Hints:
Blueprint: H1 2-16, H2 32-38, H3 66-71, H4 73-76, E1 80-94, E2 97-103, E3 114-118, E4 127-139, E5 145-156
Parallel strand pairs: 3-5
Antiparallel strand pairs: 1-2, 1-4, 2-3, 4-5
Amino acid sequence: xxxxxILLSVLFAIASCKGPGSGPLVKESFDKTxxxxxxxxxxxxxxxxxxxxxxxxxxCDGCVKISDLYSNKQFYSGKVIKIKxxxxxxxxxxxxxxxxxxxxxxxxxxxxxxxxxxxxxxxVGETLxxxxxxxxDKDFGYGYxxxxxxxxxxxxx
Length: 157
């Protein structure tokens, strides 16, 4: 009986194998087709894709609009800026931080969403003003890369 169970287990493992370099212990065990399906909601840059909302948020005094941030990202790199937007996505406690996506209704070359890492908790739909440092081309691996990211965002008035 034990031999039959072992034989069936081996046959099952062989039947489910995708060839050399595959298996649960191999980091890159899926091919490009499967990776494409897995990351279907991602932009080609690997950035997280969010749907554009229909909103017009008036910037506060001293705030930068999302369209201006993307069109002049080199200028803002490493600088602390203020930005006001509507929360479109909130992911709590990933890598020890909360991840917030905001939009203000502006857009530059199909970029309309800013991701902010923060200790602040919020809800989708809130309109908030954040202040934080702008970082460019941040890649966390596994398809999570950001052309523009605000780090250590804090709510300001």
